[in-house]
Design brief:
By secondary structure, the protein is α+β, with helices and mostly antiparallel strands. It has 15 helices and 9 strands. The strands form 2 sheets. The chain has a 5-stranded mixed β-sheet, covered by helices on one side. It has a 4-stranded mixed β-sheet with strand order 6-7-8-9.
Length: about 525
């Protein structure tokens, strides 16, 4: 447990240091601009302008901004949740924190959990008693969800979508670079094959002609009718022919050297794996060789492929896991030869390296030999290369047309990258728009019509008056605002306040009618204008 925590702490520290190394003046200036803009937008004129806050309160809010905004790059989820817990946190502040959290958090599980915790914090921090208007709890919850969706969920999903698209673009660039490298390798192979063809043609034509010249010169030198000068000239001619054949053989050797002298199938066979392991031991590699089964005669192509598997495995282990123990296994099964090279993880704890060009070429060589190659990491973080090769000579297989390398699909990247973020944003917008559409379609009938207002007179019974008063959803005007500017209520009376259906812009306020009852009778009907913003 302690080791795991220490490893996570070291990984976290390494990530922080890596971010500091990538910090450029442009990014630093951009972060400073974001910080200043968030503070100015939220402090002035911002929501805090409506509250009487002292100087130390403003200092505390600015200090929270100065801590959480830079910290969002290192601890995005924690910063977002902590920002939601700050009372009266500004919208610009939450938008920046949520957007960065969407960009930085990679795991979908962590993204969902952090967003859900932020929603819980927002609900707990919401002041249900100090609502600006007297709303039904359902409508209040809808407004809360709207605030959370616009200020937290949408920026989070936008940031996550952009991060996924950037990762996908980077994966496509890496794939394009890898394809360019493979194209260069293929072009080189084509050139080498053409050189081999030219060498074969030269050997068949020029070599044959030079051999004829040498043979005829040697026979002519035996003619007794020739003098010393003629014999000397014929000797020079024969010597030149032999020299030409030697030079031609050297040139042909260069042209036909596709992969170097180590690829000579006559000297690099399955039996030569012992000497290969011995040379590796001399070079300091901790390698062991395990042989099993009854030896079986192998075709040259299969035997050479087995040697190359062992050679590539040892090379890969020495390069990517220096100092690790390596085991080479050559086992003759009843129906096939199995060659396996596995190595432990490197002493520095680095993970197994991804297959490179050498393993790609080895895959092709094993395929041409009629076998199957498996390459992959072990659960112990080591690496394994294993090949299954047939005992019989097989025809060369056709080139694969639609086969796709597993490495072409980068880990964590799929063709539907970003679709989840778009779907989540669409769901949030649907909930917000649908909720307010439903709210807008609800009838607002709790207003007194002018006709009923004229029919209601002082002295009527409370029951008759209540029959003429409206029922239904309440207009979005708080009850406290309806009577804050009215005259004092009659002593001992119970009063109700309603909005009239006749309003005037010239009044610069809302016309409110008050009905006061005492002893079951209407004792007052009075209209006053509730001034806006007062």
């Amino acid at each position: 447990m302690i080791t795991a925590l220490r490893a996570r702490g070291e990984a976290f520290l390494a990530d922080v240091l890596a971010r500091f190394r990538t910090l450029t003046p442009v990014r630093l200036v951009g972060d400073l601009l974001v910080l200043v803009a968030a503070i100015l937008l939220d402090l002035w004129p911002g929501p805090w302008a409506e509250h009487e806050t002292g100087g130390w309160t403003v200092v505390a809010y600015v200090a929270a901004y100065l801590v959480l905004l830079p910290l969002r790059h290192v601890l995005p989820a924690t910063s977002m949740i902590a920002g939601a817990a700050i009372p009266f946190a500004g919208p610009a502040f939450m938008v920046v924190l949520s957007y960065t959290a969407g960009r930085r958090i990679e795991s979908w599980g962590k993204a969902v959990v952090s967003t859900a915790l932020t929603l819980v914090v927002v609900v707990l921090m919401w002041d249900w008693e100090a609502r600006p208007i007297d709303l039904d709890p359902v409508y209040a919850m809808l407004i809360l969800i709207t605030i959370f969706g616009v200020g937290v969920a949408l920026p989070f999903l936008v940031g996550r979508y952009l991060a996924q698209r950037e990762a996908l673009v980077q994966a496509m660039r890496d794939r394009e670079a890898r394809m360019r490298g493979e194209h260069k390798l293929l072009s080189r192979q084509v050139r080498l094959r053409e050189r081999s063809r030219i060498a074969q043609d030269m050997h068949d034509s020029l070599g044959h002609r030079l051999s004829l010249i040498s043979v005829h010169a040697g026979a002519l030198a035996m003619d007794p009718s020739l003098g010393d000068k003629q014999r000397e000239a014929i000797g020079v001619l024969r010597s030149a022919a032999l020299t030409g054949m030697g030079e031609l053989r050297a040139i042909i050797g260069v042209l036909r050297a596709e992969d170097g002298p180590d690829d000579d199938p006559a000297t690099r066979t399955a039996e030569s794996i012992d000497s290969l392991v011995s040379d590796a031991r001399k070079a300091g590699v901790l390698v062991s060789l395990v042989r099993g089964g009854q030896a079986h005669p192998l075709p040259s192509r299969v035997s050479h492929a087995a040697y190359r598997v062992a050679q590539e495995g040892l090379t890969n282990a020495s390069k990517h896991a220096p100092g690790a123990a390596v085991q080479v296994t050559v086992k003759y099964e009843p129906d096939a030869l199995v060659v396996e090279v596995r190595n432990n993880p490197s002493r520095n704890g680095s993970p197994a390296a991804a297959p490179g060009v050498g393993l790609i070429g080895l895959t092709e060589r094993v395929r041409l030999a009629g076998g199957i190659l498996h390459v992959g990491a072990l659960p112990s973080r080591g690496f394994r290369i294993a090949a299954v090769l047939p005992y019989e000579e097989t025809a060369l297989p056709d080139e694969p047309e639609d086969e796709q390398d597993e490495t072409e699909s980068p880990r964590g990247i799929r063709k539907w990258a970003g679709v989840g973020s778009i779907a989540g944003a669409s769901l949030v917008l649907t909930l917000i728009i649908g909720g307010f559409t439903y709210l807008g379609t609800q009838p607002v009938t709790e207003v007194v019509s002018q006709e009923n207002l004229d029919r209601i007179q002082e002295g009527q019974s409370e029951a008759d008056v209540m029959k003429l008063l409206p029922s239904g959803d309440e207009p979005l005007v708080a009850d406290g605002e309806r009577k804050s500017q009215a005259s004092p209520e009659p002593p001992g009376a119970r009063c109700v306040y309603h909005i009239t259906d006749e309003q005037s812009y010239l009044a610069k306020g809302t016309r409110v009618v008050r009905f006061c009852f005492r002893d079951g009778k209407l004792v007052e009907k009075k209209i006053h204008v509730q001034r806006n913003g007062q």
